[in-house]
Recover the amino acids of this structure.
């Protein structure tokens, strides 16, 4: 299990690497663009210098465009849709973190709806989202009190399923809650977080025509809530891989 946990962390790290590099380049580039623009506004500069500044500005704008595209690419491989048993997917994801959760004294509570229906989704992408939420919860609880309770709840509602990932970590003030899903927003030390986990997760959930939001209370903890539509229309059924097995109950 230790190897599995390491593997999952490494996979996540590789997935975020391109984006991380993009971020590193983006910072100095923003300076180059900003200052070349400032200089271009000056009226006391000779034309030849202005022409050179224009080249600097155009070049850096182009580099910025390339980075933007790279980020979009890092996040979007075409989803491979199939029927997904959410319960199994969550259990599998938890297994990857079992070792780390146990050594951090984090208890896992599974509050599953045994009648949860299939959703049509890309299982790899959904797993990435659950992994992000679990790793974030783990980090928050570890930091707050070196132990904790991670509660994962699934519910069948009218036309959709709801998955809640709840921790009893430190929670967060509104100022942070508002910025959570912004790319590169992080409160972690440099090298510990890229601030991309939640923005990538949001992108994935939106591609699945679902929603993701966070409820948080300072000193009490945080709950991330994902809602995904249940496949019912024939369009979606057509996307299903034929070899999919029927869902098993918990
Ligand atoms: P990263 O984990 O690299 O910082 P994320 O996008 O996954 O990037 O998260 C952004 C920020 O949201 C974190 O730095 C943290 O401040 C906050 N956050 C995310 N999940 C939690 C949580 N469960 N409890 C408290 N804060 C959280």
């Amino acid at each position: 299990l230790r190897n599995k946990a390491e593997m999952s962390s490494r996979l996540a790290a590789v997935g975020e690497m391109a984006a991380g590099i993009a971020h590193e380049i983006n910072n100095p580039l923003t300076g180059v663009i900003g200052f070349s623009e400032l200089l271009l506004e000056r009226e006391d500069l000779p034309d030849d210098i202005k022409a050179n500044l224009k080249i600097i500005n155009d070049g850096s704008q182009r580099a910025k465009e390339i980075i933007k595209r790279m980020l979009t690419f890092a996040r979007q491989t075409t989803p491979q849709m199939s029927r997904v048993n959410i319960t199994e997917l969550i259990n599998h994801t938890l297994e990857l973190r079992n070792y780390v959760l146990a050594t951090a004294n984090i208890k896992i509570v599974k509050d599953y709806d045994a009648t949860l229906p299939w959703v049509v989704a890309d299982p790899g992408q959904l797993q990435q989202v659950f992994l992000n939420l679990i790793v974030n919860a783990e980090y928050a609880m570890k930091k707050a009190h070196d132990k904790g309770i991670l509660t994962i709840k699934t519910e069948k509602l009218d036309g959709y399923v709801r998955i809640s990932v709840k921790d009893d970590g430190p929670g967060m003030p509104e100022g942070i809650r508002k910025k959570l899903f912004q790319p590169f927003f992080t409160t972690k030390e440099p090298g510990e977080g890229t601030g991309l986990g939640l923005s990538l997760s949001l992108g994935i959930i939106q591609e699945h025509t679902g929603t993701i939001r966070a409820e948080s209370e300072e000193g009490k903890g945080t709950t991330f809530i994902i809602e995904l539509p249940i496949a019912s229309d024939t369009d979606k059924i057509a996307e299903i891989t034929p070899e999919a097995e029927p869902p098993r109950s918990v």
